[in-house]
Design a protein that fits this description.
248 residues; mainly alpha; Rhopdopsin 7-helix transmembrane proteins; three-stranded mixed sheet; 7 helices; olfactory receptor activity; disulfide bond; GPCR_Rhodpsn; G-protein coupled receptors family 1 profile domain-containing protein; GPCR_Rhodpsn_7TM
Length: 248
C-alpha cells in the first residue's frame, strides 16, 4: 500500500449486535433492565456489607470487592451498547476504544484473580479452621486484593501497549458492540496474525492459571469435607453401638 494514500483512523464504527432497527428497539429495554438489575444488585450487596457490622469478615470483605469490580466491569461496554441501539451513527473514538480495551481486561483480570482469592479464603476456612483468624486477617485480605488489582492492571496494560503501537489506516468497522481485541487487531494495516496469537496467549495463561488454582483449591476442600463426613459417620456409629451395648 502506498504510504501517501494512508490515512490514520481516528475513530471506529461499531456494527453492534444486529443491523435490524426493529430488533435493536426490541433489545433496548431488555438490556437496559438487565443492566439496572446488575447495578442495583451489586450496589445493594456493597451497602449491606458496609452497613452491617456482622458482615465485617474476610469472606464478605472479598465479596464486597468482587461486587464493586463486577459493577464496573459491566459498565465498561454496556451503557455504550444500550445508547447505540437508538443511534444511527455508532462510532467510538480511538481513545475511547483503547479505554474500553484497558478497562475490560483490567476489571476482567482482577475479577478472575479475586475468585481465586475467595477460593483460598474458603480453603483456609474449611481445611485450616483453627488458623483462619491468623491467616486471613485484615492486612492479609488487603494485600491479596491489592495483588489482584496489580495483576489485572499489568495484564490490561500488556494488551493495550501492543494495540496502540499498531498502525490503523482502514477499514474501521468493528463487527461487535465493543472494542474486542481480536476484531480490532484485524483492522491493522500490517500482518497482525502473530500479535493476535501473542495477546490470546497472554489472556489464556491468566485464565488457565486461575482455573487450575481454583480447581486445586476446591479439590482440597471437597476432599477435606469428605474426610470430615466419614469421620463424623464413624463417630456416630461408634456412639450408637455403645448405646446399644449399654441397653443390652
Amino acid at each position: 500500500m502506498d504510504a501517501g494514500n494512508l490515512s490514520v483512523v481516528s475513530e471506529f464504527v461499531l456494527l453492534g449486535l444486529c443491523q435490524s432497527w426493529t430488533m435493536q428497539i426490541f433489545l433496548l429495554p431488555m438490556f437496559f433492565m438487565l443492566y439496572l438489575i446488575i447495578l442495583i444488585g451489586n450496589i445493594a450487596i456493597i451497602l449491606l456489607i458496609i452497613t452491617d457490622p456482622h458482615l465485617h469478615s474476610p469472606m464478605y470483605f472479598l465479596l464486597d470487592i468482587l461486587s464493586f469490580v463486577d459493577m464496573w466491569l459491566s459498565s465498561v461496554t454496556t451503557p455504550k451498547m444500550i445508547t447505540d441501539f437508538v443511534r444511527e451513527n455508532k462510532t467510538i473514538s480511538f481513545g475511547g476504544c483503547m479505554c474500553q480495551v484497558l478497562s475490560v481486561h483490567f476489571f476482567g483480570g482482577d475479577e478472575m484473580v479475586l475468585l481465586v482469592v475467595m477460593a483460598y479464603d474458603r480453603y483456609v476456612t474449611i481445611c485450616k479452621p483453627l488458623h483462619y483468624s491468623t491467616i486471613m486477617n485484615l492486612q492479609k485480605c488487603i494485600g491479596l486484593v491489592a495483588t489482584s488489582w496489580t495483576i489485572g492492571f499489568v495484564h490490561a496494560l500488556s494488551q493495550m501497549v501492543v494495540i496502540v503501537q499498531l498502525p490503523f489506516c482502514g477499514p474501521r468497522e468493528i463487527d461487535s458492540f465493543s472494542c474486542d481485541i481480536p476484531l480490532v487487531i484485524k483492522l491493522a494495516c500490517i500482518d497482525s496474525y502473530n500479535w493476535g496469537i501473542l495477546m490470546n496467549a497472554d489472556s489464556g495463561v491468566l485464565t488457565m492459571t486461575c482455573f487450575i488454582v481454583l480447581l486445586i483449591s476446591y479439590t482440597y476442600i471437597l476432599l477435606t469435607v469428605r474426610q470430615s463426613s466419614k469421620a463424623g459417620t464413624s463417630r456416630a456409629l461408634s456412639t450408637c453401638t455403645a448405646h446399644i451395648t449399654v441397653v443390652l
